Amino acid sequence: MLANLLESVRGPWPWWVGGVAIGAVVPLLLFLANRHFGVSSSLRHVCAACLPSGPKYFRYDWKKDAWNLFFVAGVVIGGWLAREFLMSSPGPVIGQTPAPAPMPLDLFSWSALGTGKGILLMVVGGFLVGFGSRWANGCSSGHAIMGLSLRRPASLVAVIGFFAGGLFVAWLVLPKVLR
Amino acid sequence: MKRNLICLALGVYFGIALLKAEVASWWRIQEMFRFAAFHMYGIIGIAVAIGAASVWYVQRSGARALGGEVIDLTPKPAQYRAQLLGGIVFGCGWALCGACPGPLYALIGAGYMPMLAVLLSALAGTFAYGVVREKLPH
Q: Which residues of chain A have a pLDDT value below 50?
């Protein structure tokens, strides 16, 4: 009984538990901090903090938005806590076998950075995430969750864009590259 | 400062949720874009439902935030071309590296250090956008 309970805490959450837990971030941030859920602005703040005399886009008072940097620092700590204390298996169960990690380790490793595939997935992928989220002025949290919650048409357009890009890569690029 | 500490705590909670719900997973993102599982759609759908209900409740009741502040629900200004084009670029990156910014931070915390290279690339992309911004349609 107790073992079952512990296992259900340490095991991966089903989608509906995950949905409730992640959705709850919106009211928690609104009511406790009066802030809109969003992650990718933090990338801009880091650039602004590191390059005070850089391009105009990074010259603003990023300290006013320091909450966002505290939030993502928390996400890093949360990731550590989850992995260290709260997980029975590191990767998702897809098909029959649990994956050994949340990502394919042969493609996401330091040595993969010396291969074309690794550069495409890690470096090009990351670059496009940073570039695109600033151009769209939001990412999956700011547009897909917060923006849609605010019934914001521009966020729906952004989400359509996310899927257009994602479907293109998942169906036309990755099958050719990874085979 | 109090607000910052609250945000830090909420970030910890969000980071745990991202790993436990397997949102921070390259496999889950591929599965989503391949329409191979309902998992991510269920999570995003429920999250939006909870977020929308919260926004609606604040609008209806005029509920205040901790400390009595009026809750600001002003959305960011719309720039449809930027949202569409930037969204497409973001979506390509999301499917390639299998992580949006939140999961990137969470995976680094979870000890998958090579994801630092992805985060640094995302910072480089952010910087590049700042450089070429004036030349892009918005």
A: none
pLDDT tens figures, B71-94: 999 999 999 999 999 999 999 999
Residue A16 lies in a domain: yes
Q: Which domain holds residue A40?
A: 1-102
Q: Which of A129, A133, A171 to mutate to test the interface with B (most CBs of B within 10 A)?
A: A129
Pair A76, B15: CB distance under 8 Å: yes
Residue A79 included in any domain: yes
CA A145 to chain centre: 12
Q: Is residue A51 part of a domain?
A: yes
Check if the beta carbon of residue A83 is closer than 8 Å to that of residue B109.
yes
- pLDDT tier for residue B97 given thresholds of 50, 70 and 90: very high
CA–CA min distance A174, chain B (Å): 8
Nearest to B122 by CA among A48, A42, A131, A130: A130
Asked if the ipTM is above 0.90, the reply is yes
* A122, closest residue in chain B (CA to CA): B118
pLDDT for A10 = 77
Digit-coded pLDDT (tens) for A71-101: 999 999 999 999 999 887 777 766 557 788 9
Give the separation between CA B121 and CA A124, rounded to whole angstroms: 7
> Could you give the number of structural domains in chain A?
1
CA distance A108 to chain B (A): 6
Q: Does A133 map to a domain? A: no
Across the interface, of B15, B54, B130, the residue whose CB is closest to A76 is B15
| pTM score of the predicted model | 0.95
Does the beta-carbon distance from B47 to A80 stay under 8 Å? no
Burial of A100 (0-12, 13-18, 19+ CB in 10 A): exposed
If DSSP codes are grouped into helix, strand and coil, which group holds residue B8? helix
Q: What is the mean pLDDT of chain B?
A: 97
